[in-house]
């Protein structure tokens, strides 16, 4: 028991623990054989473990689904110590082992930790042997000790894996917040992923229409360029179709045998057998997928898929950030071009024009606006416009959304009157109000228009007094035209001209 505890304390991993404790376990009751069987919950089968002597050479017989008529199957159904003095009733399950190893009787004790069966320890004898109560107690005590060691190793491994995953995800997250270089981020995601999920090659693919296009790779031979390679997501011969349709990770034990079209589609990838595909989901939409490849078949399991899912989320964020950045960049280019064109149009207008946002921030103003700005606001520069000539902006806004003009006076070196109009704009996204100002130099104010009209009316009223001969001259023209029209020698074409002369004299 001391040697068993020492072996457990010195072991550095689970494999070393099993190999170093199998002999001390056999010596607890001086058994001829010792076999440690481990139960894999995820795969629901017995995993290859450890054994002594001849029995170690036939451990492969214990890998795979558990037969119902087997020691392990019995222990899983009823986890308690099982003592057997005749192995013939288990011959169907262990026929190959019995044919290679002299095994007649023995004892099997389940490995239980945290109320979960992790496997079993089987101690066997080459001859008929009756297990005593003391031997049973010793085996159970030793098995419990091994179960505690095994549980601690698995807890440590889970904690180490979780911490490593958290550290790698944190590193990827920091990269996501520091750069928008899509290729750099995705290659870092794949590099960090390899620390927690082994692979020989990997790729990140983006969904474009009905094609899955590779945008980043890791581990491939450079002789076969992969970036840009596209796969038809509706092709039934490709595993990509499963990921996009099911929106769930897909594990393929041997992609070369189960998907005949994979080799031709993934040029130069005939070495790939085990394949794992994880969807990249942003919001509620699948935007791509993450693929991992191994040369040996049946490598990936559900745990690998779960770990890869966390990195797939980071890859999805990177893809979406890159897409939004590209869309924003294109929109900014379009907006600045439109703003430039709008600025050119506004500068061609002599009136001062400025466009404001919802907080009255200046979005765009023409040259005339900045010329009038010191006179109207008393400031040479302005990022916001709240008042005009001391009046709040709302004073100039028309309640019905129409365009009206209000006159404001500015006193400085000389009194100046401006006509101001402001109205809300709903057609443009950022721009909420437009403000326009007319100077008397470019557009007469209402009072100057009325004064001009009165002056013109007075001038017309003075015209008869200023020209007393106007009516006499007109009468003479009319009279001479009438007399000439009565002369029979005047041709008809001349009579028309005389009638026109008389009419014009009458109008005058």
Main sheet characteristics = 6 strands, antiparallel
- The percentage of residues in β strands lies in 15-25%
Basic shape: elongated
Quaternary form = single chain
Mean pLDDT: 77
Number of strands: 18
Unreliable stretches (pLDDT < 50, length at least 5) are 456-466
What's the helical proportion of residues?
Answer: 40-55%
Structural class: alpha+beta
What is the topology, as strand order, of the major beta sheet? 8-7-6-11-10-9
Q: Report the radius of gyration as a whole number of Å.
A: 48 Å
Number of helical stretches of at least 4 residues? 14
Distance from N terminus to C terminus (CA atoms, Å) equals 140 Å
Walk me through the structure.
This protein is α+β, with helices and mostly antiparallel strands. 44% of the residues lie in helices and 22% in strands. It has helices spanning 2-10, 14-28, 71-77, 91-100, 133-178, 182-193, 240-246, 255-258, 262-265, 302-347, 367-377, 446-466, 470-485, 492-507, and strands spanning 33-40, 45-51, 82-84, 105-113, 116-125, 201-208, 211-218, 230-232, 250-252, 274-282, 285-294, 352-356, 362-365, 387-388, 391-392, 406-410, 416-424, 433-438. The strands form four sheets. The chain has a six-stranded antiparallel beta sheet with strand order 8-7-6-11-10-9. A hairpin with a 2-residue loop joins strand 14 and strand 15 (391-392). The longest helix is centred in the first third of the chain and has 46 residues, at 133-178. The chain is elongated and about 165 Å long. It starts with a helix and ends with a helix. Residues 456-466 have low confidence and may be disordered.
